[in-house]
Amino acid sequence: MRFESAEPGVYPSLIYPPYISTVKRGPTREPLRIRAAEPVQANISASPSLILPHDTDLTRHGQGEPLGEKIVVTGRVLDEDGKPVRNSLLEVWQCNSAGRYWHKRDQHDAPLDPNFFGFGKMLTDDDGRYRFVTIKPGPYPWGNHHKAWRPAHIHFSLFGSVYAQRLVTQMYFPSDPLFDYDPIFQSIPDLAARQRLIARFSLEQTVDDQMLGYEFDIVLRGRDATPMGL
Amino acid sequence: MASNITTSQTVGPFPHEAWAWAVSASATLHSSAPTITISGILRDGDGVPISDGWIEAWMPDAAAAETAQQIPGFRRVATNDNGAFRIEVSLPSPACSGKPVLFATVFARGLVKHQFSAVFLEDDSGLAQSEILSQVPADRRPTLIARKQGDARYHWDIWMQGEQETVFFDYV
């Protein structure tokens, strides 16, 4: 597999002062482009047995129905040549509909939902497709600056077919008024690259009167992928 | 042709519950090879430990010794309140001399793109012939070397910035 340089502006600025935590944590030097055989030949092999029955339905982790708007999120994971990335591990996590994470360090003054923990995992199918059911996450304040509220988002973690394709990102929802004020979203200089992180509302994926559908396709870096089985 | 790749965003401070399954799956090591531990501290530009960071280790050459492992050759650990992490490693065969003992990936709040690095053992006799190290400027190579601390124990700190800033990679 080949890994070409990402075009300027596609990756976020590692040091982006409006996002305060980047100032002391983002590397100051350009990453060193190197050849390495191993990262392009191998990857973790996640056994399907590691995927539990309710990992793709985040609304079924408690004793009852979670509060909020039930949604389905689906899309395809592709490489840069548009080939599906198959049997590939994908993890998601998010806050609940009130904007609070199931995490001891999240002290946001919003209720925890005893029926929603907000995490799941899955493998892509032969078409590179993933699909999960969840609750639409709420916006929440995060203290970065005055009136700092994150746009609603779901965190995604992908392993791809080979190590160098590893990606962690966030999926946002259409027409969020907070985009222009969010320094995490704005840390990506390229407008088109930012917009690729916004899911598309899909009536086709909407399930009757149960849940609204969103589509979010993901393109991992790398060309000429050799599809790998498990 | 524009690649249209999906760009990255930070893990934020709260992936712990979602990522715990893989921590558990790699916490106890079942290996047919000798093992060592690599421990260190993840530090920011002021040297302050990063207490909400994550390290993933990928050891393709060691995976064969870990067939009893739920995820062979892979580890995921969170840094603790002191920014410390500890990774147990199956030693690859002597034929792998000069290769990294593990490929590392660093994630943290404030790190809008995860960073790839690699670790070599200081007592690996093949370092001078290493294909990867030879591509790294000589004055920065020490940032990729784990120092021996005792029997089967090595130390490797990760510095996000500063004079000792760890070398991070972008693969060709």
UniProtKB/TrEMBL annotation, chain A:
Alphabetical UniProt keywords: Dioxygenase, Oxidoreductase
Domain annotation Intradiol ring-cleavage dioxygenases: ranges: 73-101
Pfam families xref list: Dioxygenase_C (PF00775), PCDO_beta_N (PF12391)
UniProt keyword Oxidoreductase, yes or no: yes
Matches recorded under Gene3D superfamilies: Aromatic compound dioxygenase
GO biological process: 3,4-dihydroxybenzoate catabolic process
Top-level division of the source organism's lineage: Bacteria
Family: Belongs to the intradiol ring-cleavage dioxygenase family.
Name of protein: Protocatechuate 3,4-dioxygenase, beta subunit
Organism: Collimonas fungivorans
From TrEMBL, chain B:
InterPro entries from the UniProt entry: Intradiol_dOase_core, Intradiol_RC_Dioxygenase
Highest taxon above the source species: Bacteria
Residues annotated as signal peptide: none
Keyword check for Oxidoreductase: yes
SUPFAM superfamilies to which the protein is assigned, alphabetical: Aromatic compound dioxygenase
Residues annotated as transmembrane: none
Swiss-Prot/TrEMBL keywords: Dioxygenase, Oxidoreductase
Molecular function per GO: iron ion binding; oxidoreductase activity, acting on single donors with incorporation of molecular oxygen, incorporation of two atoms of oxygen
Family matches, as Gene3D superfamilies: Aromatic compound dioxygenase
Record's protein name: Putative protocatechuate 3,4-dioxygenase alpha chain protein
Record organism: Collimonas fungivorans
Lineage: Bacteria, Pseudomonadati, Pseudomonadota, Betaproteobacteria, Burkholderiales
